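Lecture 7 notes: from sequence to structure.

We start with a single chain of 218 residues. Read the sequence below before looking at the structure.
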Amino acid sequence: MSNRIKVVLVDDHPLFLDGLKQTLNSQQDFEVIGLGHSAADAERLADDLLPDMLLLDISMPGGGIKAAEIISQKHAIINIVMLTVSEHESDVLQAMESGARGYILKGVSGSELIRILKTIYAGEPYVTPSLAAMLLTYFRQNDNKTQHHQHELDKLTQRERQVLVEISKGHSNKEIANNLFLSEKTIKHHVSSILQKLHVKNRVEAALVMRNHQDNDR
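Now the structure, written as tokens:
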């Protein structure tokens, strides 16, 4: 089953780790190829196994965010996902800035976790909705950043704005392509241009910029 998504799990709670392993291995699309309990384990396993996806806990020994930063710099191809109990705004921001492509709260159902991981593997970043709303509040409170992004929004073409609105609704590239009657390749080009013009790192940040702009216009 070489087409399975190869996953490494790192968490310092053995029972949770075992349950997570069983959940993923029960799916034909996933294969857990390594387990660890610390940031040092995460770095070693990433180097040795080069998994498709790496799930980390923020509060594990050595720190999940620090591990994510180091691993993302060395292995950009690995999809790093935070699976944690932390709902702190600073943790969410630091995790995404460190290179994580997903931020999921523990307690999510097994079926929902599988769906989210597949979405991330397909190239769509993910942040638990309640935390995404919290990040929006953060941007609202940061006047300098808000003003800067308003200026950058003015640089977008009409088509790029249409794509950004779709992104802010949580739509995938395929869904946007269908809605705007364009090819996925064209949408990917527009998304890349949008991220560059807004000076943001990923679709999550771009969506928050657009939602903030829409709220300010109301």
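The chain has a mean pLDDT of 86. Keep this in mind for problem set 3.
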